Amino acid sequence: MTVAANALLAAGVRHAADVDPRSGTADSRIRGILAGEVSAMARHRVLLVREWDQQMGGSGCCGRLSADAVGALHDTGDDPYAHARPEMERMGAVYRALRERFGPEEVELTVVDPRNTAWVLPAVWRDARRRGLSLRESVRQLNAATAACTVVCDGVALVSDPDPATAVAAVAADLAAR
User: Fold this and answer.
1) All residues at 6 or more sequence positions from 145 whose CB lies less than 8 Å from its CB, including other chains
2) For 95-129, how does the pLDDT look when each residue is reduced to its tens digit (9 = 90+)?
3) pTM, rounded to two decimals
4) Helices (H), 46-84
5) Sign of the alpha-carbon dihedral angle for 114, 118, 121, 126
6) In the beta sheet, which residues pair with residue 151?
7) CB 3.0-4.6 Å disulfide test: which of 9, 14, 137, 152 passes with 133?
8) CA 153, CA 108: separation in Å to the nearest integer?
9) Distance between CA atoms of 106 and 41, rounded to whole angstroms?
């Protein structure tokens, strides 16, 4: 197995479903690993939980439907994800602010849809337990982490519906406290 393949496995990429079809990678850290910029293990993981503009159900062997495909099926001409677009844009600003403040060697920054519970729940559970949270507190964090527009750092939901400055301050304070 190649070094890149081992790094991808260490980063949690187990199969093609873990990879974003638009970029071909799971997150910014994977691109860095493939480019040889960072090691396979970042010190901390920050999850930005926000809806994606695509259908999530039925995304197995049958494929996913993009916003364009859903719009074509409904034939209304309206954006089927218009209700979530402002939150997507706000979380995009949060992503850019966090990436500007924290480098990929310090923080693994991952954007995940709250409906992707098959990935979110085990990831938050592992991070919360690695952080030393009790079983009860870990379960509470699982519930909090599935809310849209939430910033999760190492298994703890820090803020929900934040502006960029609030998100950066919350992550910086959480990292400084440990």
Assistant:
1) 47, 49, 120, 121, 124, 152, 155, 157
2) 999 999 999 999 999 999 888 999 999 999 999 99
3) 0.65
4) 67-74
5) negative
6) 48, 159
7) 137
8) 10
9) 9
53 vs 55: CA distance, rounded Å:
7
Condensed to tens digits (0 to 9), the pLDDT of residues 14-36 reads: 444 455 545 544 555 555 555 54
CA distance 87 to 172: 22
Distance, in Å, from the CA atom of 168 to the CA atom of 176, rounded to the nearest integer, reads 12
Cα 13 to the chain's mean position, in Å?
13
Q: Name the one residue in this structure whose structure tokens are 């693994």.
A: 108
Residue 132: which region, alpha, beta or left (left: phi > 0; alpha: psi -120 to 50)?
left
CB 28 within 8 A of CB 109: yes
